[in-house]
Amino acid sequence: MTVIEKILEKVPRDAMISSTSYEGANIILYTKNKRFYLHGSDIIRRLVEDFKKRIELRSDSSIRMDAEATQAFVKKTMPTDADITNIFLEPARGLVVIESKNPGRAIGKDGENLKKIKEKTYWTAFVRRESTIQSKITQNIRKVLYEDNVERRKFLHKVGERIYEHKKSNGKEMWARLSMFGGARQVGRSCFLLQTPESKILLDCGVNVAASNSDQYPILTAPEFDIQDIDAVIISHAHLDHAGFLPYLFKYGYNGPIYCTAPTRDVMALLQLDYIKVSHAQAKNAIYAAEDIKQVVKNTITLDYNEVTDITPDVRITLHNAGHILGSSMVHLHIGDGWHNVLYTGDFKTKATKLLNPGHWTFPRVETLITESTYGAPDDIMQPREKSEKELVKLIKETIKRKGKVLIPVLGVGRAQEVMVILEEAFRKEKIKVPIYVDGMVWDVTAIHNAYPSFLSKEIVQQIFYNNKDPFTSGAFNEVAGYKERQAIINGGPCVVLATSGMLVGGPSVEYLKNFCDDKKNRMVFVCYQGVGSLGNTLQRGERKFIEGGITYEVNLDIHTLAGLSGHSDRNEFMDYVRKISPMPRKIIVVHGENSKCLSMASGYHKEFHVETTAPRNLDAIRLR
Ligand SMILES: [Zn+2]
What we know:
Helix content: 25-40%
CATH class of the largest domain: Alpha Beta
Largest sheet: 7 strands, mixed
Structural class: alpha/beta
Strand content: 15-25%
Shape: globular
Number of helices: 21
CATH superfamily of the largest domain: Ribonuclease Z/Hydroxyacylglutathione hydrolase-like
CATH architecture of the largest domain: 4-Layer Sandwich
Bound molecules: zinc ion
CATH topology of the largest domain: Metallo-beta-lactamase, Chain A
């Protein structure tokens, strides 16, 4: 008997359940009984307690008000100051999505507006916060989500059927192993396969943007990888070295679910689109098309931090804040009803930054820790963040004084917004009095930050909601819309430019560098990691020449690196994290670092904590228990 059949046995006969459906691990009951739809919540609550599953009641289409009249009623019900930007109806699931710039007002006191809609139209309404910053791309992502709701319902049902499938192994024989397809003893193309008797799950699926040949992509020719067998993909965060290869899976036949946070879904779609654009600009063939990215968006099931969900018959996951970039998560995997627990940290920061709260460290159980080591060398000790913030402002002031321009290459997401918050404060306090330009897709990413304030630091939330001083829309920043404006900046006076890409691998940052590099009055400040093989890394290591498009450029501008603004932990933070993580893991697998850093962290952990540690190489497979 399926779990749905068991639940239906407990539902009163007059509830008139006309159809049922899975939405991933959630179970949806559709009713034809208007009274039960409005007043059945106590019965549903009891079922949730009995079955320990999320169960939701929706209306059968036959009792709902027609779509047009519902639109009109919702519009009429919403107060003007709710600032409604869109109302989407999903007839296949009986849902009304209301996008609002002021969700509190849209929902109303104790949810009274949503209740009104439910009672009058028999649709289930919910409110989604819309960014106060205009961004076409993010609007398009939202549209893709509601475009084909019949397909979406079918897809979510199929995912649920897989989750609730009978266990092949009857739970008798348990094992778990992890294969490294990329990101082991290197930074870039993170991709790991977790296998159990019931599951094949990919953790991240990235590219290595700094590499030049086939080393850019995860090694999916490994014998244990078969695209048809993958049950689920979990994405820790949106950076291309963790999610840049994902659309390629869809191009080659994957059609299963992707789990991540909502901001990760939005930001990664943007970064993947930009990756195509940059490939074209470098006259390279893009490895996938916009259509594939659309499929990624459609197949994503978003989770909030701390939300527990089954993803296969023997694996349950929970995402926790990683403090690295907007929406970044640590992935907790609960295998075989608690037989083994794994924490995959992704990239993480243990200290609070201006933008984000510190990474999570308490878990019910963790036996195996899989963790990054980007800044894991013994001498990777960052100066305190406050000091770096002051230094950044000082470097800018010096450059302005000598009538130069400052270029800050940024990753688009993460450091860009961190730097924006710092610069906004300096601008507001009149420490910086020149224009600050933002070029590349930084602006679209910033719009996504604005749409998900609950993922930002307490301080920013305070600023946005209580002081009405959103740092991103304060007027300190000028968006660079195109070629003409870029030219004007290049020919103009002292200024600060934030531009992608962060490692000077294509994008407007390279255009600015070509024009700024000759003049020693100018300055470039690195605030993010420079991958081996990238132009950024070469210049950081002291090279004072580079070739772009067959032209050799002399580099006379001075170059600074501010490591203290990193979204990664440094050596001390890594050690502190394992000191304070609760409970203490028995095994630590170190990945996502250059060769020597992975090895150094593995031996550092072993010496201090006397636990089993290992720094596997790509194509290695490790038995977890
Ligand atoms: Zn990252």
